[in-house]
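Lab notebook, page 48
Experiment: co-folding of the full assembly
Goal: obtain a model of how the components sit together before planning crosslinking
Operator: M.T.
Materials (sequences as entered):
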Amino acid sequence: NAGVTQTPKFQVLKTGQSMTLQCAQDMNHNSMYWYRQDPGMGLRLIYYSASEGTTDKGEVPNGYNVSRLNKREFSLRLESAAPSQTSVYFCACQTSDSYEQYFGPGTRLTVT
Amino acid sequence: AQSVAQPEDQVNVAEGNPLTVKCTYSVSGNPYLFWYVQYPNRGLQFLLKYITGDNLVKGSYGFEAEFNKSQTSFHLKKPSALVSDSALYFCAVRDGWTRFGAGTRLTVKP
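Observation: model returned without errors.
Model output:
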């Protein structure tokens, strides 16, 4: 079992470029999440998906879009990257009963 | 208001000494509380949770946490720290969605 996988591990973008961060889980959980981690700010929720076919905004959704492609996959898209989106991005899935979350290894994104 | 707070950015302890990493929360009702650990260049790993029941919760790697409703706290503890415990620790509370504290960097010195 791979758990939660994310691609790519690293990415450098120029301002205005677009990209999609991929996330997949083999834990068969319904809920999936995208967070960004910035120094001194903990993790902030960008978007989440409670089940296949549904997505909802989190705390900091501006500048991002998501797609829940199927139960396994949840992608995050930056349509026009900005330097303020330089961050480490984590995907997670969550158990339905006790709300434990399991995280991927992260994507380190730099926007110049 | 912030749902979860970790008042210390940094905690330093000597190997073999007990450690405490503090967390307070501010949600209504009965909280779901969590601790996660993050090692360098890795994602967060679940350590333990409190949902209901015994106020002392035991988790992975010898860690435990004490839920105190009157003080709205959920401090992480370990009786004897190891150098390998050095990492970033996050407290979290479920309040609609899961909200994370800013993190506390624990350094255990030999």
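Interpretation: The first strand of chain B starts at residue 4 and ends at 5.
Next step: discuss with group before ordering constructs.
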